[in-house]
Automatic annotation (TrEMBL):
Molecular function GO labels: RNA-directed DNA polymerase activity
InterPro entries, alphabetized: Gypsy_RT_Integrase-like, Integrase_H2C2
Protein name: Reverse transcriptase domain-containing protein
Origin: domain of life: Eukaryota
Keyword Transmembrane helix (UniProt): no
Transmembrane annotation, as ranges: none
Biological source species: Tanacetum coccineum
Keyword list, A-Z: Nucleotidyltransferase, RNA-directed DNA polymerase, Transferase
Amino acid sequence: MRQRRWIKLLSDYDCEIRYHPGKANVVADALSRKVRDKPLRVRSLVMSTYTDLSERILKAQLEAVKQENVKAENLGRLLKPIFEIHSNGIWYFKNCVWLPLFGGLRDLIMHESHKSKYSIHPGSDKMYQDMKKLYWWPNMKADIATYVSKCLTCAKVKAEHQRPSGLLQQPEIPEWKWEHITIDFVTGLPRTSSGYDSI
């Protein structure tokens, strides 16, 4: 019915309707065609779960508070007054787990928050906002920004690496149908077998 209505409407105008079956219609109909992606298939993912994370945190914290390691941890004289020790023995700063420099826990947590199979490469601000609810260490925001800046995937999609888009201008709305016709030209497409590169 919809096609019949369109044909009736177009029959009032002097135009030619050409039908290109199947693959021959790639260039002419590229913008109006619905994208048909392959159906998603569920694959089993290898998910690394750290059941011993609290033990690793506690072990790293105990290593960090040793007299010879306090200076490397960059906590200085603030060590005792700022931390609370919960019943499980883990040290907290304002209800956030303190991740010491020892044990490689900071890199592990940042990796899981940024590059794991279940994350979407958030920027440094979003990643910091998410992580500061659970974890704390000195200079945390700067460390996260440095970590994200080294991510190759994030560097590829930054705005400065993308071509700037042209100015968008809304065409005037015609007062009567077909009084004004606007045509969009799309150029720079891959060449077809006929040699065309634009719509």
